[in-house]
Amino acid sequence: PARVLRWDGAKWQTVGNVTRGSLKAYVSAFASYNGNLVIAGSFLEVDGVSTPGFATWDGKSWQPLGSGVSGPFPPIGYALQVMNGELIVSGSFTFAGGVSANRIAAWNGETWRALGNGIDWGSAVALTVYNNDLIAAGNFQIKGGIGANNIARWDGVEWHGMGYVNRSVHAAIVFNGELIIAGEFSGIGGVRALR
Length: 195
Prior knowledge:
Layout: E1 2-7, E2 12-19, E3 26-33, E4 36-42, E5 45-46, E6 49-50, E7 54-57, E8 62-63, E9 69-70, E10 77-83, E11 86-91, E12 95-96, E13 99-100, E14 104-107, E15 112-114, E16 119-130, E17 133-142, E18 149-154, E19 159-161, E20 169-175, E21 178-183, E22 187-188, E23 191-192
Antiparallel strand pairs: 1-2, 2-5, 3-4, 4-7, 5-6, 7-8, 9-12, 10-11, 11-14, 12-13, 14-15, 16-17, 17-18, 18-19, 20-21, 22-23
């Protein structure tokens, strides 16, 4: 199993063990939401509790996010971001709490909702907030033919393209009021860009 550890200032302590049957388990992202720790990754259980892809820890026990996410294959969680009181999650799932949600969804602590038509194929491995919009980055296209390749902006109502990025984006962050991205790409919207 993979482990989640915490440092108390003097020593490391195990918070949980994540497992994925005979496959390698790992945690890919953390978030703090409603006073709880949330993890995303490639796992089916945490300490024996069924939590495919995403789990939350209240300081005492692990639980799934509501009724969790699902799809044709056991889900993998990729990224987490808190925005406008909701936890945005991305991963390899097609349903969140029984709601059709293609690879990206929002959890408000009680219910799930889709973000538009979601992601057509691929995955968003990085999420951040820029100018009050959610930025999703990775290796994907947004459903609906809006021309969003590997990076897209969700304004709370619909998705928008941000220029054609010719290869995968692996990380995104806001720094000094600017959106910074990194990945395998060499061009964005016709502008040559170093990796």
